[in-house]
User: Fold this.
Amino acid sequence: MITPPDIPAWLAKLYPFSPRRFLTPAGATMSYLDEGPRSDEAVLMLHGNPTWSFYYRELVHALGETTRCIAPDHIGMGLSAKPQAYDYALARRIADIEALVAMLRLKRVHLVVHDWGGGIGF
Assistant:
């Protein structure tokens, strides 16, 4: 199991979540939020450049009581790894999200996307 990142106290006030970690098929460590009741259905929130899951923090707060919310940080952004030897192309990003969805065993997702998250999600 990969341990979650430490959140500095100043950030925890704005981002009071416990991010999880996932090893992508390319071997990079992705941070993601998985908040709300466990279900095989979730709202999947995909950010653009140069943001991270922090962008969706208010939406996670609003929906998290009743709806499973998944908000990953793309590799190279937010709390995810930032490897130099990594293919940062669209196809790799799509494969990362497909693998995350499969690992979480999601059967139905409701997409919320921003910027490059649209190309990745759709």
